[in-house]
Design brief:
The protein is built from 26 helices and two strands. The chain is mainly alpha-helical. The protein has four domains: 110 residues; 126 residues, Up-down Bundle (5 helical Cullin repeat like), CATH 1.20.1310; 176 residues, Tetracycline Repressor, domain 2, CATH 1.10.357; 181 residues, Methane Monooxygenase Hydroxylase, Chain G, domain 1 (Up-down Bundle). The protein is rod-shaped, with a radius of gyration of 69 Å. Keywords: Exocytosis, Transport.
């Protein structure tokens, strides 16, 4: 029973739970949206097996409950509904009447409202226009500044104010255009700005090119102005220094110092003060460079501009440094060349200091070093073509001014001053060539005779030009003669002129007095040892210079040699450098004039010998004559007379000076001895001539007569000063040879041969053999002519045998001598 109860309680409990669950499901279905009912209904099927049936029963019960509630409600409100319908039917008639009235009113309102509507639409349209106008004004107020800036930009472009135009563009891009960027015209503006920038770049670059072309054309004028100012400054300083020097010491050069153009220092100073000082800015407008630099800087392309400018200037530098082919012909060619270079670097120096970084000091130094190398090479080449010393001197002055000008702008110019030493050598060479012509003209116009002086004035005129001092001549009465010829004082004066000319080059070289002194002495030595020495040598070798002229040349060189010490004093007075200075160069005039004297003496001997040869060529011996004429040959007497007259010229030279007397005596003695020796040798060669095959004894006798005349001439002392028979010894070889044949003393000759006391010591066996063979052939030929069909006479046969015996002995002596040697 308990079990049944429990089960009953459990069943009852389960039934209550099921009913509760169904109530919950029904409430969810009633309160939930239809789309969400599915999950709720699915839970019904998920419960106990009979739950669906019980749920359907519960659902039916709920439906019937709702139907009853609806029926109750309808019954409750039905009478009200009926009353409402009745009332509504009553109202319909009034509504129809009201509807008619409303329609009539609506019609009348429609008619009245049409005009209001039209006016309203007009008002609306006006309001829209007003609003649009306000918007337009507002937008125009934003656009007008843009347009004004753009108009300003166009105006700046027209006025070529490109830098300001770029600033305006920058404002347009950054400030104004962004405010109205939605408008098409602004977009067009924005697209035009880069093109305008490029256009500005092109225009500014075109202006720069015009500027570069302009400075290329004006560089000559710029350089001329800069060099003139530098020259005026240097001249002013030089004049001030000279005034100080003149006030403190004696003049350095022995001449009145003058301004370069003949003006005094004060006049030059006034001229410099009166003349307006022009600069590169006064001659060239540099604004294109500044403008272009600013433009490219603003555009952020400064580096491109700098590279372009430097590249173009390098090209222009190469063009400027290229000289004209005929530049060396005139000083104007050099001046124009220097002006262009100075103008170029003056412009670069201005650009360097007026701009920040367009050109740098390193760039200008690079340009200058390149230019300096080219300038030096050009000047070396073209100066070598200059043959006019005045042109070379003007070139030197131009180089100095050129160097001073560029040094004033900070460019190093030491290499230019080093180049001047090379130009100085060239200048000296041209001077030497010029003075060679001067010396040649002096020598050609000289009469090579002592200078006659008629009175004291003429004497002083000569002495003022040449340092001549001779106490004996000064004591003589006028008229009198000075030992040297006219060329001596002229040569001395020209050497001094050469020193002055050489000194001109040393001015303004910033060198010490010692260096200038050394330069002058070296150049003077070159003049003496090369130019004057060469002119003297050529003069001595000229064919029209006779013996008298040669003697006078010897005297002249002696006086010039004596004057060398005065030339050294002259240089000392110019440079104020003591000759006792350790490094002072000495003049080499002594050796120069000594060499010239020796050459003149040698030429005297040579000309004498040549004259002797000319006379000997006139000799016409009849080598087969039977006997002599009994008198000397005519050619030989003429030769002796010529020698006598010639040596009389030597003896009649002015000997009032001991040195002159000793010199002329020595020359005369040497010349006389040389002439006698040459005559003796020539006569010996005539006898031994290989083309002469035979000689008769009559020819030997005639030849002996000629030699006797020569010996008489030598013994007559044609030139004083010979001791004893010194001059006759020149003919001793001929005399012993002829005596041997004339006496026919062969036994003595052969017996005493080789003995120091031999009578015929000077007769060589080979010489005796050669002449004996010729005499032998002559005797045979004579015998054949006299005895064609007969035998030799006994005397002739004996003589012939003797000759053959002597010939054999002579040949044995000759062979013995050859074996011994």
């Amino acid at each position: 029973m308990n079990t049944v109860t429990v089960r009953a309680n459990m069943a009852e409990s389960e039934s209550l739970e099921t009913i509760t669950e169904h109530e919950r499901i029904l409430q969810e279905i009633e309160s939930t949206d239809t789309a969400c009912v599915g999950p709720t209904l699915r839970s019904v099927y998920d419960d106990q097996p009979n739950a669906h049936k019980k749920f359907m029963e519960k659902l039916d019960a709920r439906i019937r409950n709702h139907d009853r509630e609806i029926e109750k409600m309808c019954n409750f409100h039905h009478q009200g509904f009926v009353d409402a319908i009745t009332e509504l039917l009553k109202v319909r008639a009034d509504a129809e009447k009201l509807m008619g009235q409303v329609s009539d009113t609506n019609r009348r309102l429609q008619d009245a409202g049409r005009e209001v509507t039209a006016q309203t639409e007009e008002v609306i349209r006006c309001r829209i226009q007003q609003r649009n106008m306000a918007t337009t004004v507002e937008r125009l107020q934003l656009c007008i500044p843009v347009l004004e800036m753009y108009s300003k930009l166009k105006e700046q472009l027209e006025l070529k104010r490109y830098y300001s135009a770029l600033k305006t563009m920058e404002q347009l891009e950054n400030t104004y255009i962004p405010r109205v960027s939605q408008y098409r015209f602004c977009q067009i503006m924005a697209e035009m700005l880069p093109k305008l920038r490029e256009e500005i770049k092109e225009i500014s670059m075109s202006d720069l090119k015009d500027f570069l072309e302009s400075i290329r054309k004006h560089s000559d004028k710029i350089g001329e102005t800069a060099m003139r100012q530098a020259q005026q400054h240097r001249t002013f300083n030089s004049e001030v220094q000279k005034q100080v020097t003149l006030s403190c010491a004696k003049p350095m050069y022995g001449r009145t110092p003058l301004h370069h153009n003949g003006l005094s220092a004060e006049a030059a100073d006034e001229e410099e003060m009166d003349e307006e000082v022009l600069t590169a800015q006064d001659l060239v407008d540099f604004s294109p460079v500044y403008r272009c630099l600013h433009i490219y800087t603003v555009l952020g392309d400064r580096e491109t501009f700098e590279n372009y400018y430097r590249k173009q200037r390098k090209k222009q530098a190469r063009l400027v440094l290229q000289p004209q082919s005929n530049m060396h012909e005139t000083v104007e060619g050099y001046r124009k060349y220097f002006n262009q270079i100075v103008g170029f670097f003056v412009v670069e120096d201005h650009i360097l200091h007026a701009t920040q970084g367009l050109v740098t000091r390193a760039f200008t130094d690079e340009l200058w070093n390149m230019a300096l190398s080219k300038i030096i090479a050009v000047l070396r080449t073209h100066s070598s073509y200059c043959e006019d010393p005045d042109l070379v001197l003007e070139l030197k002055n131009l180089i100095v001014i050129f160097a001073d000008t560029l040094q004033g702008y900070g460019f190093p110019v030491n290499r230019l001053f080093d180049l001047l030493f090379e130009v100085r050598d060239q200048y000296n060479e041209t001077l030497l060539k010029k003075w060679a012509l001067v010396f040649r003209d002096i020598f050609e116009q000289d009469n090579y005779s002592p200078i006659p002086v008629e009175n004291e004035e003429e004497y002083k005129a000569v002495v003022s030009r040449f340092p001549f001092h001779d106490a004996e001549i000064e004591k003589q009465q006028f008229p009198k003669k000075l030992p040297m010829s006219q060329s001596v004082p002229q040569i001395y004066s020209q050497v001094k002129e050469f020193i002055y000319a050489s000194l001109k080059f040393s001015e303004s070289l910033h060198r010490s007095s010692t260096e200038i002194d050394d330069m002058l002495r070296k150049s003077t030595n070159l003049l003496l040892t090369r130019t004057l020495s060469s002119c003297l040598q050529n003069l001595i070798k000229k064919p029209h210079i006779g013996l008298t002229e040669l003697v006078q040349i010897i005297i002249n060189t002696t006086h010039l040699e004596y004057a060398c010490k005065y030339l050294e004093d002259f240089i000392t007075n110019i440079t104020n450098v003591s000759p006792e200075t350790v490094h002072t160069t000495r003049l080499y005039g002594l050796s120069t004039f000594k060499d010239a004297r020796h050459a003149a003496e040698g030429e005297i001997y040579t000309k004498l010998n040549q004259k002797i040869d000319e006379f000997i060529q006139l000799a016409d011996y009849e080598w087969g004559m039977a006997e002599s004429d009994g008198r000397a040959s005519g050619y030989l007497m003429d030769l002796i007379n010529f020698l006598r007259s010639t040596f009389q010229v030597f003896t009649h030279l002015p000997n009032n000076n001991k040195d002159h007397a000793a010199m002329s005596g020595k020359v005369a003695q040497t010349a006389c001895m040389s002439a006698c020796k040459h005559l003796s040798t020539s006569l010996m060669q005539m006898l031994l001539d290989t083309e002469l095959k035979q000689i008769s004894m009559g020819a030997i006798e005639q030849f002996n007569l000629d030699v006797i005349q020569c010996e008489l001439f030598a013994s007559s002392e044609p030139v004083p000063g010979f001791q004893g028979d010194t001059l006759q010894l020149a003919f001793i070889d001929l005399r012993q040879l002829l005596d041997l044949f004339m006496v026919w003393d062969w036994s003595t000759y052969l017996a005493d041969y080789g003995q120091p006391t031999s009578k015929y010591l000077r007769v060589n066996p080979s010489t005796a053999l050669a002449l004996l063979e010729k005499v032998n052939r002559g005797m045979k030929d004579t015998s054949k002519k006299n005895n064609i069909f007969t035998q030799f006479r006994k005397n002739d046969r004996d003589k012939q045998k003797l000759i053959e015996t002597v010939v054999k002995q002579l040949r044995s002596l000759v062979n013995g001598m050859s074996q011994h040697s």
